[in-house]
Amino acid sequence: MATRTLSQLRAHLREPIDASSIAAFRIVFGLLVLVATIRFVATGMIHEYFEVPTHFFSYYGFDWVKPWPGAGMYIHFGVMAVLAAMIVVGLFTRAATLGFGLLFTYQHLIDKTNYLNHYYLLICLCLVMTLLPMGSAWSLDARLRPHVARTQVPRWVLWTLRAQVGLVYVFAGLAKLKYDWVVEAQPMSIWLSANQDFPVIGRWFGEPWVAHAFSYAGIVFDLSIVPLLLWRRSRPFAYVAVVLFHVITARMFHLGMFPWIMIANSLVFLPEGWPRRLLGRPTPHIETKPLRVARALPAMLGLYFAIQLLLPVRHFAYPGDVCWTEQGFRFAWHVMVMEKDGSVVLHVREPGTERRWDVRPGEYLTRYQTKMMAPQPDMILELAHIVADDFRARGVVDPIVTVDAFVSLNGHRVARLIDPTVDLARERDGFGNKAWILPRPSDDVRPTLSAEATP
Predict the structure, then answer these.
(1) How does residue 279 score in pLDDT terms, banded at 50, 70 and 90?
(2) What pTM was computed for the model?
């Protein structure tokens, strides 16, 4: 029975479908990343992120990634804009997608201060799209190179894109199954209280029951929207819900391009061939030539999605609340699950002498870097090393660097985040547990819901 079911699934995934759905996804994706790239230049983000800072917080193993000197970053983004336009029109689609993905990844790796979930999503989509025949229809590639032109593609191509987008929603919903979110409606209460000027309904945002309603709605939306988009009868209503949900969150929380990216990406769940029907194009002829697929592609996609399933749950390998320690927090679709603020003062001491210094992060960082660093332990560690290196350059022998780091999570009382007795200058970053991160205070610790442990 299992063998027969598996054979039926394989046959279903190999069935040809209208390639216009894939083409529309490519065009919309290309337009979004083109707008995002132009936005970086037009709003001065290149100057703010890559020219103003004197220090950058690197990802583990990527400390060699640095901003280009001179006008290099402007050229970098200029090339990205050209590649994004090539994705839109489908010119050298695979190479353009790969090139854009590599350049976007490079600029993203320069400084973890600027980490955003939707930046990571764009990188993931670039990688997946590089492996798929995205330029086979409605593209210059199809016009200039007839041998790549196709009116149909196997169904698995569409399902690969659906899987990537669907994972974001599912893991974002699972990440909300925490005591603070479910029982205390935090940080939703904080966010709603700050938005009481919202049109029509803002007057009720200070009511506790409204915060709980919004919190539960967020969980229900994230965990149910994928099956509702896949079910034919509920699909139209589900997509309207997608649009309303993301428009409201964009208005309330100022999330940049993330809401619009998810509205566009969710088009992949619409019926196969919807763009052709929308434009009144004739039904495509049945494709007779087989799609040439590298033998290694199934294994590559299998490995990729295995990683995508493991990364969001890796935080269970570490002790403590992931929102407090942030070990395993990034690249896990923890979308809007906490409100966290902190303050840091570093103390430098020279062994064997009476020389001591108190250091403020603002002496080394921009205001935005300081804000983002303060509640994140790995960034505090890196700042400690930056300070230690600076004091060594001043002639201080083997400086000892300790910190007073205080954090408030989801409106709870301020508490120490880092052990103040540990010399962070001698600690190293890595994938192991960071024992110098103090546990969340006992009066802030709540029992974790069992559902959280079953992604």
Answers:
(1) confident
(2) 0.92
